[in-house]
Write the structure tokens for this entry.
Amino acid sequence: MNILSFFVIIPVLTVVAIGYTKTMHQTRVAAAIGMGIQLLLAALLVFLYLGERGAGNTAEMLFTYDALWFPSLNIHYYLGVDGISVAMIALTGIVVFAGIFASWEVEYLSREFFISLILLASGVFGFFISLDLFTMFLFYEIAVIPMYLLIGIWGSGPKEYSAMKLTLMLMGGSALIMVGLFGIYFYSAPEGQQLTWNLQEIAKNRIPVEMQRFLFPFTFIGFGVLGALFPFHTWSPDGHASAPTAVSMLHAGVLMKLGGYGAFRVAIYLMPDAAQEQAWIFLILTAISVVYGAFGAIVQKDLKYINAYSSVSHCGLVLFAILMLNQTAFNGAIIQMISHGLMTALFFALIGMIYGRTHTRIIHEMGGLMKVIPFLSVVYVIAGLASLGLPGLSGFVAEMTIFIGAYQHDDTFHRILTIMATASIVITAVYILRVVGILLLGPIKNDHYTHLTDAKWYERISTITLVVAIAAIGIAPLWLSDMINISLEPIMQKLATATSSFRSIF
Amino acid sequence: MNIQDFLLMRHELVLVLIALLLLIIDLGLKPANKRRILPVAIVLFLLHTLLGFFPNDEGVLFGGMFHSSPLILMMKNVLNIGVFIILLQSYGWLIKEDNKEKMSEFFVLLFSTLIGMYFMISAGDFLMFYLGLETASIPLAALSAYVHHRTKSAEAGVKFILSSALSSGILLFGLSMIYGTTGSIYFTEVALRITENPLQVLGLIFFISGMAFKISLVPFHLWTADVYEGAPTSVTSYFSVISKGAASFMLMLVLYKVFSTILPVWQQILYALSIITMLIGNLFALRQNNMKRFLAFSSIAQAGFILLGIMVGSKLGMTSVIYFVLVYIFSNLGAFGVVIAIENATGKVNMSDYNNLYKTNPKLTLLMMLALFSLAGIPPVAGFFGKFFLFTSAASAGFYWLVLIAVLNATISLYYYLLVVKAMFINKSEEPIPYFKSDWVTRTGLVLSAIGIFILGFWSQIYEWITRLSVGIL
């Protein structure tokens, strides 16, 4: 059996096992074991992948597995990974594992909680390993729908409203994707030949430019909704703020990356002509996302809202980089996805832990936490520094690469947008340092806080896993960007075939 | 007639025999033992369903009035499966004291409508088609009014028979125009003489309007909610899946066989109909509290989706319609099964009664959730595949904007399906429906629909089987 199939089988088996557990303790142990195995599997995949590449295997996709599913529509169950998907799988493995430990204390319907959480994870893993547009879309929707229950049942605040808003907006996005996919399918092969959903096969063919012009906006906006593309980002702050800790982690950390990855793999890769022509529209939107998200974060008082807006900003940067359409920026986009995934998961985990102690998320009601819960506070500072792009942590590598890529365009239009987007780094520093100052430093505002206890063992597992990954990317970014770079080759070649060149209103 | 001819119409003959047999058995039973008819009827129908799967040749009877083919056989089998599940799910209701006296009538009436649908689908001319249609409708009116001491049930019966008569009138008017212009009622002959002659187009419009009543397409849907609400819930579920499914099959067959030369004309009509049907069905479903009315409007919206496949006119379109109806039967029966079970146990049919159902009846709740997700088209359950293939077929004809409207409508529908999920999982309740356990027959029915909801999607052989038998406009 192919190693990739296990990424779907293990979560499903875990779900079944959890179904048979009796007590809350058994449930969470089962979940932890299942996702622990999944994390090990992801690590194994990274080593196997690097080994294959080291041995000189130059195929575009490795570990492919192909089974015909619906012959009459030529739908396959087709799996395969390249450097980009391997990196995303590793990210998902880490975040899910950390998420299980961050939700160690979920008591209400804990079995159902972990089942929904792991089902969601299985959808994400499935999405990253599939190369058939049908199965990809299937897993995409599987990843979206458990969100409703997770936020609606275990969330806080206006949870029902947020859950419904999030689900409907994301499903609306997937409606757009669906239209795009149908168009891609019916133009996937030259007249008279067998149509296909296979991503690689479609890439060999050139979709007629008029169709690309029509389909690209659907596909890009559809995935963009999940990637928090302005003005379709509004589900994100509400959803993240209402969601329980692990769900915020998984959602901001991994699920939003489905949007970026999909926009990249499907929209840009398969429709390079339209991408060249229409990039400017979306570049403007993403630049707004980046700046607007950062400004939004400044004025928020609730920790989760601050982080949700900062996610809009950082995910906007991912789409921004993708639309720059050059190798350096692509590389930066992928690293940014991983880096943001890790640090936002860490943020949300910490916010959940702090909230569990202080029972408030309003920053002005807290203060001086560094003195009482030093471990969590230090980790919070690390996450903050990663977020504002301090060298040595992952955020720096990602943002540097993106801006170098963006700066390679020497026309005025790109320059202006690049400078705008770069300004977001400064704004990020403002809101991160503001929170650190109010929340962690200064006098202790509330006497009760003196009795707070620092992180428990499971919380330490959760946070340390993420911190190690963030630092690893920051200190040794080359192995990651090398892994990604090789896999960008086919995409760059495809882009080079585009006859349309960049156009803008300017 | 030789044995071969008998085999061609074996579905009809066997079911007539079963209906008569049940009447005779009922005569022989003592009043105290009337309930024994129930297992007999269910077992006989199961045998009939299984028998239906034996392959059959293509053939024509009665000089072209009746014809049969593997495709038609499959459509009948699809309906049979649905009816069988309905029978199982109705067990708990039928066994009640109220129905003791008239149990056999339920089966005879139900089987009569099914026979009508068989004849309708097998029709080779408009006369047989109309006979089948009426045979299918009239017993349904009696079934709607089955609980005669309840005003709403009686009202439903009257409403249905009146609107049904009106629609039949419209239909006949259209058919007479077609007869008048082509000089024939045989499908094969009419097909040769259909042009874009205004009178024929008018006939087509009247024909589609008449069928739209049966499928409850907007603006011919006004009877639906009231009848669905008033009729006994088992009958409602029959209305919503079998009656609708058969009428959709028939509309598709006639359009493909008879009106194939004027494809663009009826494509336009169906295009408009499907958009308003989806939209109105969805918008009205948003604010329903009664589960039966809720499912009524949701089924109107689903009918709008079915049109998407019908209007394509290709083999792909027909496949996706049959597959969608099959999936829809299982999903809708899953939802109705739960409604029936809860109504039997507690008499409650409102969405607000379902608050916090998960706490007391987790299994029923999970089935309901799966069924609703399937109706909304959420993977991994079968509804996703049904909708996806339906939309694929519509996109194959280049209807991208229509597909966009349809998928956005599917998103709207998700909203109200999620309202039920929300009620069952999230809303708090002072007095939730207490735990209850249905009898094993009803549970078998529920389990069957759950299995269908799960495997119909993943098991691609079913879709391929339908593909092999489907035909498009040549």
